[in-house]
Amino acid sequence: MMSSVTNLLYKAINACVPKHDRSMYVSTPYYTVSSIMDVINCHSSNAYYFVNKYSTRMHEKKVRIYVEYLHEDRMSDYEAFAKEALNNNVELIFVKHYRGYPNKVQSMIHRFKNLITKYKTYLWITETGDQGANGKLKTQKVVCLNYFISCKNDLVAGSNDRWDTIDVLMTSSLLHSQIISSSVGVRLENCVPNGMARNDSLETENMKQRIIADIEKELGYRPQFIFAYAPTYRDYEDQNSPNRDLLGYSAEGLSTFLTKNKIAFVHKLHRAQESRIVSFPKGTVKFNYCYDYSFYDLLSIADCLITDYSSIGFDFMLRDKPLIYNLYDWDIYEKDRGMSFEPYEEFCPGEIVENYDQLVRAMARIVNGEDPYKEKRDRIKKLIYKNADFESTNRIIDYIEDML
User: Fold this and answer.
1) Which CATH architecture has domain 202-384?
2) CA-to-CA distance for 64 and 116, rounded, in angstroms?
């Protein structure tokens, strides 16, 4: 954590910077560069989705928003988007992320420049608690839109985290607020259960035909069912670990099952996992990031999500579609990472499988139109969501409007 002397120096600099009324600075995580997220392709990012919807909603008074970007080749699109935003009384100014520069010296210089730009504003919008609140004055507020609903033992505030500087942390429910408060040190009264902005995108199927067409090109057949597979990162795995199968166990026969039932098995793996997969059976498709749609656009049209210890399962619950939990390494993972809930299986809103035979039987039930875990899903949804709807962004915008 920053020393008190250094923080005082930053505060002194901040105090000398003129401020803009009704202004905010939106920081974006660096992972958005590999995931190709921005204010236009925004459906997988709480920060970008918030900016997109804020900019397309009419405001009585003018608002200035500085937002970080990483994709230089999209600048003409950003400028066109900003021009439209002006019609809604939103002045959108794009600030290049400091990590978008080619060397460390340039990166450090622009990191400081971006900090000065941030000092011009009263609201600092982030997705995580470690995106910086250096030199924040009492008149300035940090609003964290968050990026996960606690599932595994996600975070413990460490030396590099700044969660303690958060004035408002968006959560999904009282339960979520209590868990994340105890995990990262945010005061419980600073947690506001307005929901996750990006989850609103799960309601729409605007990109359905485009996504299906792209999948068909990869598979050679038009899918009748889409199963999305999104396992979490495993701390005990890295690129030096032994090679592994896609699902964590041998899946001989999966190709036949997928092609026979015209299933698209679309997977989004962590890079460390993907590099060690022995083979990808026919019928499986890697999710390829692009400027036109995001993984949450895929989830909005998926018939089922297969996951494990990731909070993405709670996000997908809002679609009221079946889930499958592939817990092939439960004993190892529980010991290595731990969970936010015990017993964990009581908070899995779907069928739990540990091997290939169990997985195929669970998938077959979904293909046949069965949904045996709907009642459990509805019960868990009430615990995870104060508002199980697609209005989170509007609630967040209204809340932030009151802060300006």
Assistant:
1) 3-Layer(aba) Sandwich (3.40)
2) 15
